[in-house]
User: Fold this.
Amino acid sequence: MVINLSSQHSLVSNWVSELRDVTIQQDRMRFRKNLERIGEIAAYEISKVLPFDIKKTKTPLGYAKSKVLKEQPVLTTILRAGFPMHQGLLNYFDKADCAFVAAYRKHEKDGSFEISLKYITCPDLENRIVIISDPMLATGSSLVKTIQFLKEEGIPKEIHIVAAIACSVGIEYVKREVPSASIWCGDIDEELTAKSYIVPGLGDAGDLAYGSKRQN
Assistant:
């Protein structure tokens, strides 16, 4: 299942437009806030497909029946760019467990790269609902490798991926490697550069949110 949130929400499309805008990007706080907002909308939409129980609640005037989540998900993000979207998800799933993974592209002199995973902290993931946030789904390599890494801590029963912008190439790769995963994205682009950056995309989400980095 692949859901383009921009096709359903004019607000999401508006926020994605601001994320892409080279002038508005100069305001880091606004950039982070728009990522956070997309995370919130994704949380709301994902909540519609999660299992629930009926809870009987005592009010001052009687009893009410309400739908409540049957279980809390595990919110997972890839450091560092994923933090704002993770916060948006956490604003809505405020009782969720959390997991964090450090993954990055390790570039070679010939321009190629491999995904390097350095760190993970998470609860037991066996039979849990896992929601993974990463602003840019380009080739899908880092997400697939992250999911494989996470499965060493238990096999989730559901996996939901949240991205601000996804490339159709990466979506197809994820669908092939993790066919049970659902992908929720702010928008979908069709093109990757030779260096595997999304076009038109928005640039480096981590740098735009937190400043440029030094990377050997």
Remarks:
- Helices lie at 10-20, 28-47, 83-92, 141-150, 168-177, 205-210.
- The CA atoms of residues 35 and 85 lie 5 Å apart.
- The mean pLDDT is 91.
